Amino acid sequence: MKPPPTTDSPTEWLSPQAGYMLLALMEATEAANRGEVPIGAVVSDAQGRILAQGGNQTRSDLDPTAHAEVVVLRQAARRRGDHRLLDTQLHVTLQPCPMCLEALRQARVTTVVYAGQRLWEHSPLPPCSLQQEKASEEVAVGLLSQFFQQKRA
Ligand SMILES: [Zn+2]
Fold first, then answer.
1. Which of 51, 70, 73, 146 is most buried, with most CB under 10 Å away?
2. Cα of 104 to ligand 1 centre, how many Å?
3. For 4-51, how does the pLDDT look when each residue is reduced to its tens digit (9 = 90+)?
4. Four-residue CA torsion sign, 23, 6, 17, 121
5. Is 69 an annotated catalytic residue?
6. How many Cβ atoms from other residues are within 10 Å of residue 86's Cβ?
7. How far is CA 148 from CA 58, 83, 84, 106, 137, in A?
8. Is 122:95 a contact under the CB 8 Å cutoff?
9. Is residue 55 a contact partner of residue 31, using CB atoms and an 8 Å limit?
10. CA distance 128 to 47
11. Distance from the CA of 69 to the center of ligand 1, in angstroms?
12. Near ion ligand 1, which residues have CB within 5 Å?
């Protein structure tokens, strides 16, 4: 592994924040060793404890959603026993893609710190064809309405 990048302030590198990113970089290296795209991530809580750390697993898991961020969100949620990860921060070695950014919002992660900047603003992949099946709309929306009415009652 390469030596840590130099910063203007050596104390910045020695901060706990830098420690999380170093762990994420190590996970990225591990991912590369497994033949995955080298991206790593770490979730920590408000007390500084590490809830999860991991890297990309899309190829080994045959899971197109197994980006490093999603991998560690799942681990952290299981460890906490809660699908909401309030008062947590996530360190990731590359700016999250739109899928992961939305997953981080859904998980209520407080702060996301990334190292590398994505080279593109939007996904270079072609968009999916998005179509609505009107015939099923009423039933689908009805299920949701019922669920939230019971939640509020
Ligand atoms: Zn992603």
1. 73
2. 10
3. 544 454 444 456 777 999 999 999 999 999 999 999 999 999 999 999
4. negative
5. yes
6. 12
7. 34, 18, 18, 17, 17
8. no
9. yes
10. 41
11. 6
12. 67, 97, 100
